[in-house]
């Protein structure tokens, strides 16, 4: 069972519909007991990092997620804002601490030559050969919606990126049994479904 974490922010039903299209057993839930019993978790998110972490803390889900990842050692996928929450901190709204599952910080996108926020399709470039790369089309394009991006991460954790102006956008990152996508796989057509399928069936 895949549990999609409902903390009041995120494209919950788009993610659920994508998993349904893959024939994956999943649920949208805000109940701690459901998260604890799940095989894997998905943390979606749209909005501001500060609101994200506050909502998770107020609902009591933050500690449940920490226990799931650090003590139960089960897989977690963060999508968009959900991926940013996996890092140590974000400079959005001053400074907000993230989960710290992955080394790195989230900073504001700044480049006067491109439109910000970064909205729309962009190509995804892999930095290493791995099973996930082989599942994508030869020229994968994915859908982004964001104004902040990851920096100062361990290069060994980076799986794939996109270029936007002079910025190198961390598209896919993995560390242990934690995985993040800055883009929205649930909105990224066949390539997006492939990454969700990989998380469900192969990512450990």
Draw up the topology in text.
Blueprint: E1 2-5, H1 12-21, E2 26-29, H2 32-37, E3 40-43, H3 49-59, H4 61-71, E4 76-79, H5 81-84, E5 89-90, E6 96-97, E7 105-108, E8 118-123, E9 125-126, H6 131-135, E10 141-146, E11 148-151, E12 158-164, E13 167-175, E14 178-181, H7 189-201
Parallel strand pairs: 1-2, 1-3, 3-4, 4-14, 5-7
Antiparallel strand pairs: 5-6, 7-11, 8-10, 9-12, 12-13, 13-14
Brief sketch in words of this structure:
With 204 residues, the protein is an alpha/beta fold.
Helix proportion range: 25-40%
Given helix and strand content, the structural type is alpha/beta
* CATH class descriptor: Alpha Beta
Full CATH superfamily name: Class I glutamine amidotransferase (GATase) domain
How many beta-strand elements? 14
User: Which regions are unreliable across 5 or more consecutive residues at pLDDT < 50?
Assistant: none
- Fold-level CATH name: Rossmann fold
Largest sheet: 8 strands, mixed
Pathway: Amino-acid biosynthesis; L-histidine biosynthesis; L-histidine from 5-phospho-alpha-D-ribose 1-diphosphate: step 5/9
Keywords: Amino-acid biosynthesis, Cytoplasm, Glutamine amidotransferase, Histidine biosynthesis, Hydrolase, Lyase
Pfam families: GATase
Subunit structure: Heterodimer of HisH and HisF.
Account of the 3D structure:
- This protein has a single domain (2-201), classed as Rossmann fold (3-Layer(aba) Sandwich), CATH 3.40.50.880.
- The longest helix is centred in the last third of the chain and has 13 residues, at 189-201.
- An 8-stranded mixed beta sheet has the order 2-1-3-4-14-13-12-9, with helices on both faces. A 4-stranded mixed beta sheet has the order 6-5-7-11, covered by helices on one side.
- The chain contains 7 helices and 14 strands.
- By secondary structure, it is an alpha/beta fold.
- The mean pLDDT is 95.
- Residues 4-199 form the Glutamine amidotransferase domain.
- One of its GO terms (molecular function) is imidazoleglycerol-phosphate synthase activity.
- Heterodimer of HisH and HisF.
- The active site is at residues 80, 184, 186.
């Amino acid at each position: 069972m895949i549990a999609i974490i409902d903390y009041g922010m995120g494209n919950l039903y788009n993610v659920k519909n994508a998993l349904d299209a893959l024939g994956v057993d999943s649920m949208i839930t805000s109940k701690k007991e459901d998260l604890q019993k799940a095989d894997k978790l998905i943390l979606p998110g749209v909005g501001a990092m500060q609101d994200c972490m506050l909502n998770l803390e107020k609902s009591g889900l933050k500690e449940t997620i920490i226990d799931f990842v650090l003590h139960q050692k089960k897989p977690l996928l963060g999508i968009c804002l959900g991926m940013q929450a996996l890092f140590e901190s974000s400079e959005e709204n001053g400074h907000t601490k993230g989960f710290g599952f992955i080394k790195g910080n989230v900073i504001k996108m700044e480049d006067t030559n491109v439109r910000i926020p970064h909205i729309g399709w962009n190509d995804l470039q892999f930095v290493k050969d791995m099973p996930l790369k082989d599942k994508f089309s030869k020229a994968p394009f994915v859908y982004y919606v964001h104004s902040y991006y990851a920096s100062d991460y361990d290069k060994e954790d980076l799986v794939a990126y996109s270029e936007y102006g002079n910025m190198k956008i961390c598209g896919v990152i993995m560390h242990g049994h934690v995985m993040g996508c800055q883009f929205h796989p649930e909105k990224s057509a066949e390539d997006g479904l492939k990454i969700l399928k990989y998380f469900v069936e192969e990512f450990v």
